[in-house]
User: Fold this.
Amino acid sequence: MSATSGSKAATRERVESWSGQSIPRKEDGRLVQGEGSFIDDLGLHGQGYAWFVRSPYAHARIVSVDTSAAVALEGVYAVLTGEEAREMCVVPFFQIAPGDGARIEEWPLAVDKVRYQGDAVAVVLADSRDTARDAAELVEVEYEPLAVVVDGVEAVEHAAPVLHEKAGTNVAWHGVYDYGDIDFALEHADHVVKIDRLHFHRFSSTPLECNGAVVDWDKGSGVIDVKSNIQMPMFAAMVIGPSLGVAINKFSFSSRDIGGAFGNKIGFYPQIAALALLSKKAGRPAKWTEYRTEHMLSSTHGNERTFLDIEVPVMADGTILGVKARAVDDVGAYLHYEPLGAVIWSQVLTGCYKFKNVKVDFTSALTNKCPVAPNRGYSRMQQLWMLERVIDIVAHELDFDPVALRKLNFVQPEDYPYQTPNGCVYDSGNLPLSLDMALELADVETWRRRQSEMGTGTGKRIGIGIGSTLDSGTNNFGQARIVNPDLPFSGNGEAAFAKLDLYGEVNINVGTTPQGQGHETTSAQVAADILNMSPNDVTVTIGFDQAHNATVGFSGTYASQFAVTGLGAVMGATAKLRDEILEVGAFALQAPKDDLELRDGACLVKGDPSRSIPFIGIANLIYTNNAMLPSELSSRIDLNCRYVYIPPFEVPDVERKMGNLTLTYASQIHVCVVEVDEETGVVEILSYVAVDDCGKRINPQIVEGQVHGAVGLGIAAALYEAFEYDEDGQLQEPSFYEYHVGTAMDIPDIRTGNIESPSPFTPNGAKGMGEGGGAAVHTICSALQDALGKDGAIVFDSHNTWERVYQLLQSSQGNEPRGVRVISREGGAA
Amino acid sequence: MTEQGTTHVIEVTINGRLYSRTVEARQLLVHFLRDTLDLTGTHIGCDTGSCGACSIILNGKLVKSCMMLAPQADGAVIETVEGLANDGELNPLQESFSRNHGLQCGYCTPGMLMAGTYLLRENPNPTEEEIRRGIKGNICRCTGYVNIVRSIMDVAGGHGAEQADGIVGEEQR
Assistant:
């Protein structure tokens, strides 16, 4: 495969360290030529094409399913119904939830009932995509519609229709997070700011490539070959294996190029299970390529969260003492990876701030909507958005400068490592400096001047917003026990192999499922540094493959952890390989190991380059010439080095909900300037700046690209994108016509700045940073709040279409209740 | 299973090579490219003509190949992403996308490259605003468009357009 010629020339130079260089990516050569291997590009001999039959109703009893007309259609191989799927399964999918939630039964296809529009009731396999679709239309399903609940808060009230009768409730999980003494703080604070309701809306990152899989249940071997673009293949195997009655070593998950995922490709394991059963029934591989509307209806949405009765104790000088709130998470109709969202948010319990008193009453609610699952910034961005709204509303109501208020309450540079009230440890950072840099890059002074000069009567307003965000990375899976103490999960890790192959080739395998983050490139960079050679000469195998055995239970790409776990594994494996090469070299060159070095694919005696052996010579001795070696050496060394990186975690204290839930905390401080048209509510972004601090950057250009991408998704979410259901549970935005994805006209140029606070906890000083913490959502809301001005309406929703902005402007002029009150203690200031 | 009268024989020139195939009347052009001819560089990201992942140049015009039926392309001259590089040697626009990190997952990239190619042919010296308008029919979820715009900008300007090209069939010039 030809790489980009320009990049080859660039990377031939000898550099001090390949880590830290913005070398062009190894992935690019194939991708710019249309030679990537995405899921719909793959197939197997004799495959059929699968098409799911999906419910038009949000909640209905399945009275009957008649497949006879579909089966009779020429070209149809098999039709599988929910009832048949249940009979082929041993048990339902295991549930993460404890108690009532644990009694939820989910099978590969819906049985007895459908619970959201798009719930799959059957799946067809045919000789072509078109035949399969035709046949799916011939499957006659009789439904008896049931009452629908589409709001999380209503869903947990007594009168609401219950989705899962066996659970007996729509409360999938409930718990109280209580640290410090919030009631004391509320009693003694100079001011208490009360906010009735804040709402974080439902959207998703909608990767441009939809889900897909080619699944072959091989009759002879019993092996289920799953080629797919799922992000957490081993998690999928763990969930569906017991259900299908299949051992993990009978799965063969693999992936190649993945066309974006953003967490959205974690949750489609029910489809994979259904395809496995369909393949078994039909006796041939089943290929399924999700189509866009199917993705929008039934893949994954992000968590929708409503915060109620928020109370914030504030001292006269602006010191914020804490936050008290109720949070209701709308997780949709089934628990896919949920209710882990009910704990993952607490990685950023206090966000960038130092307050010590927090009480959050948290409920995960089931509704007749598409199941949620991770979406870039999973569960944390909702909390971070709420906290940023709180900061801005406090500033707004008590007349503090939002910059000064943030700086006063930020965790300070000298506080690191900083322990939060729930035991999380912020590793490093410099938030005040990051904010100063962002303000300067955005030239906020000039914009403030223009804002005040603009005055009334121009019909335009300028708003300046700040978003302060943490991007927590590398989960401690022990936090799952806070949701369910019986779960046997803790820690995290990733595996990699470094191999010197027969003719001296260096090859790396790693258990991740990259979706554009450039893992081939950065893996090669860190390996090249250890072997003192060019990254061009390091091959990194494309994609994930269970057969490589470079896997642990956590393998995959999610939760901003590759730079730590993935590269940690690559570094460990490569260091082992280096050591083995030196040992063989010491024998071959008859020199002490300590006198040797590696350079450009050879092992040589330091200071005497005439004494050297190339990697091909080393490989020859191990693979095809081992009688030359003493058995002590040949029995011990195989040039095939596996390493599992394990981050330093402990099991959290489940009772107190305390523990270090995540290893690294990258920060993102954003500033933006918007112009709002008073007559129309149209919002134009005049300037956008993002300053990130993710510790040591392995490839700065890739890091900057991640920042851009997260900003783009955040801006689009804040201004355009939403999944909204009507009262019948019909999705109002089932395609890219209705769901307005941000285009190049909507997302402005983004200025970036960078601060480097290396993590003391990671093998390379790097921190995960891929998610961006939803910073742009907070920043846009902050800018809109600023534009609404003193006494203006409160930005209470994360989704602010131009229509909503117009409404906010209108309500700012009236005397409508603003949903915010300030109670000041007698003798307190203001 | 195709009934009489629902198929067509079409001839299409793609990246300089003539293909003659029998297709179903209802087959989308993008499925003809991907499934019938195995030209899988052209991608599908939506069903509504919204995302541009399937963008190709057909008879000199930028089109979304999911919005046409294969029989409608009978006699057409088509350029796809597979025709951009010359025997593995990337063209300047492809080089620029790599140099400027104008791609992450790479799924929108073929469509973006075709939109960029068309844009630079029509307007060799585009402003940033014109570039943004030129790719507004192409969705990217990874890059926030920042480095895509920079990638196109980097080869534009004076000689850039000719450099970026190098794939134009004689018949369109």
User: Anything to note?
Assistant: The mean pLDDT of chain B is 90. Residues 103 and 109 of chain B are 6 Å apart (CA to CA). Strands of chain B lie at 7-14, 17-24, 55-58, 61-64, 77-79. The longest helix of chain B spans residues 109-122.
